[in-house]
Design brief:
By secondary structure, this protein is mainly beta. It folds into 2 domains: 428 residues, TolB, C-terminal domain (Neuraminidase, 6 Propeller); 74 residues, no CATH class. The chain has 5 helices and 38 strands. Strands 1-33-28-27-26 form a 5-stranded antiparallel beta sheet, with no helix packed on it. It has a 5-stranded mixed beta sheet with strand order 13-14-15-18-22, with no helix packed on it. Strands 2-36-35-34 form a 4-stranded antiparallel beta sheet, with no helix packed on it. A hairpin with a 2-residue loop joins strand 37 and strand 38. Helix 2 packs across helix 5. The longest helix is centred in the last third of the chain and has 14 residues. The chain starts with 6 loop residues before the first helix and ends with a helix. 49% of the residues are buried. The N terminus is likely disordered.
Length: 528
């Protein structure tokens, strides 16, 4: 479910991204500086294109950004894909403070290990999270000083760790809380494993700050456990620590739900024994009755994949003042959104008894639909969100499907959004919202390959859990122009993924050679 942010999801999304490879096409209008793009936003706002390949920034898989405001610069982390040592740290320089004109984009560092998080921290340093370590440096004259290692030995094994990305926050006393994501999706639950050996290591690690030498203790304590993947992590000025949980991937489209958790020292938050709110997964007897179990503060809709959270305190977008913003990276029909929550003085989203959410159209339907939040296991009250960016579904020739990751409030109060799948930086600011012509949210049916018999069975059994289009409109995925059957280096994208040594496509393990041959042979014949 995380989009963000795992080996398995990364490979799934890299395949799914082929269905929306067309990038953002600027409109004739601007959005408070940068050119506007055809994405539907809340009232009195618009979305502008700051950087992508067409505007001079050849990102591969950008994740987060950091503003160096006095110099009109942005630092951008770029994973470079899901392989080790491919990561890039970019420095972008602009000619104006609204980021409408990119002057240059250059690589400050290369060969990084899945760089993800980046932020200012103690001592005025810039702190950078790679999969295996956190380093810090300064930016002087547009150049990076030699990085110093802050934390090392983070859990990472290339190709064998599904959630290797490093997010971190600083507590008031300087201590570091660092995400230690799970190696697996559900710790072997779906395979019938009886004992989860990750419980004592997965969650949030606390590294104590040693002010006498401006360093962090090399040893850590497991501050909170039972958290599958904590890439969305945030500290409120009051001291509240919030985490947005990316729940298990490989379930039906309506379950499980994502979570917003209040992190407390020593708390156990359920994974993999308990999902939603007190929903026993059957992994062990009475999985939700652990003595230190803390249920979610609020649930979110299923599979939305929250990848970042910030508190907005700017003036440029008054409607968002003092609200919690969350990027929903999920590629299913409830994801690809930016949402906001009103919060109280402790930074906690306000709860409601009747929460609803919207879904994108599933072809051949054309309308967005509203649904009640009814998680399995029940609910008393959850937080009601508002859609800041809601019409972000794919429309061929109009826009790609959005995939928001990093959120950053800029000095002028506008909001920078990093879209990793579409390799772009976007800026939400004041302006006139874009409105679709005619029916909103229509998916185009494109040059499709129909399939039946054994091929249909194999694809539905192994792929449709994440790619719902196979059930309703396979033409969106199985096409020659920009889908799974697009040729690259003499082979289709589908063939490359099914035969990859990693075995993460499909997510339940590499198919037998005969099954791969059945799928590829049938589709090749149908494509003639």
């Amino acid at each position: 479910m995380d989009l963000p942010r795992t080996w398995i999801t990364g490979l799934l999304l890299s395949l799914y991204a082929s269905t929306s490879s067309a990038n953002y096409q600027p409109l004739n209008s601007d959005c408070d500086g940068p050119p506007q793009v055809a994405v539907g936003t809340m009232e009195n706002t618009c979305l502008g294109l700051v950087a992508n390949a067409a505007r001079g920034a050849a990102f591969v898989k950008p994740r987060k950004a950091l503003e160096v405001p006095q110099d009109g610069q942005l630092l951008v982390t770029d994973m470079g894909g899901w392989g080790a040592k491919r990561g890039i740290l970019w420095l972008l320089e602009f000619s104006d403070n609204r980021y409408s004109q990119l002057r240059s984009a250059r690589k400050l560092s290369t060969g990084l290990n899945l760089p993800h998080d980046i932020k200012f921290g103690p001592g005025g340093y810039i702190y950078l999270g790679e999969a295996d370590r956190i380093t810090r440096f300064r930016l002087q004259g547009g150049e990076q000083t030699p990085p110093e290692t802050v934390v090392e030995g983070l859990p990472f094994a290339a190709g064998k760790h599904l959630h290797p990305l490093t997010s971190f926050v600083f507590l008031a006393n300087g201590d570091l809380l660092v995400n230690a994501g799970s190696r697996s999706d559900d710790c072997g639950l779906s395979a019938g494993q009886q004992l989860c050996d990750e419980i004592e290591s997965v969650g949030l690690r606390r590294y104590r700050y040693l002010p006498e030498n401006d360093r962090w203790d090399t040893d850590y304590e497991l501050y909170a456990s039972g958290l599958r993947n904590s890439v969305a992590l945030l500290v409120h000025p009051s001291g509240t620590v919030l985490q947005a949980e990316n729940s298990t991937d490989l379930k039906e489209a309506e379950e499980p739900h994502e979570e917003i958790n209040i992190i407390r020292p020593g708390g156990f938050y359920g994974w993999p024994y308990c999902a939603n709110r007190n929903l026993d997964t059957g992994y062990i007897p009475d999985g939700c009755k652990q003595s230190n179990y803390i249920e979610p503060y609020s649930l979110m809709p299923p599979h939305v994949a929250p990848l970042d959270m910030i508190y907005y305190n700017g003036e440029r977008i008054p409607a968002l003042k003092n609200q919690l913003l969350v990027s929903w990276h999920g590629y299913r029909v409830i994801g690809n959104r930016l949402v906001s929550y009103p919060v109280d003085n402790e930074g906690l989203p306000r709860l409601s008894n009747n929460v609803t959410y919207n879904r994108d159209p599933i072809p051949p339907e054309q309308a967005f639909t509203s649904h009640a939040l009814v998680p399995r296991g029940g609910t008393s009250a959850d937080a009601q969100h508002s859609e800041v960016i809601g019409y972000w579904n794919q429309k061929k020739g109009v826009r790609p499907e959005g995939a928001p990751v990093g959120l950053l409030q800029l000095q002028d109060g506008s909001l920078l959004i990093v879209d990793d799948k579409n390799k772009a930086l976007l800026r939400l600011s004041r302006g006139e919202p874009y409105m679709d012509e005619g029916s909103v949210g229509v998916y185009a049916v494109i040059d499709g390959i129909q399939f039946d018999g054994p091929t249909k069975h194999l694809l539905l059994e192994n792929c449709s859990g994440c790619h719902n289009e196979l059930k309703g409109n396979p033409g969106q995925l199985l096409n020659r122009l920009d889908g799974w059957l697009k040729q690259a280096e003499g082979r289709t994208l589908l063939e490359q993924k099914l035969t990859a040594d990693s075995g993460f496509m499909p997510p339940n393990g590499k198919l037998e050679d005969r099954k791969i041959a059945t799928i590829l042979g049938a589709l090749s014949e149908a494509d003639k």
